[in-house]
Amino acid sequence: MFDHGPLPIWEPSLGFPAIGPAGQFLIKDVALLGIALVVLGESLDRLNCRSASGWTHD
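The structure assignment produced for this chain is given below.
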């Protein structure tokens, strides 16, 4: 019913490996997710270091 074929990630008119708009969108989202996970990991690490050293917020 809603099958419109494969997702146009590659743009065939520009040759391989030209990325189409859908591919650019997906790559951008993967990059932003990776950046967010790195920031989260660094923040959690900093919180763990502070709690281990007895640092308190007054």
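Interim note for the steering committee: Helices lie at 21-52. Residues 21-52 form the longest helix (32 residues).
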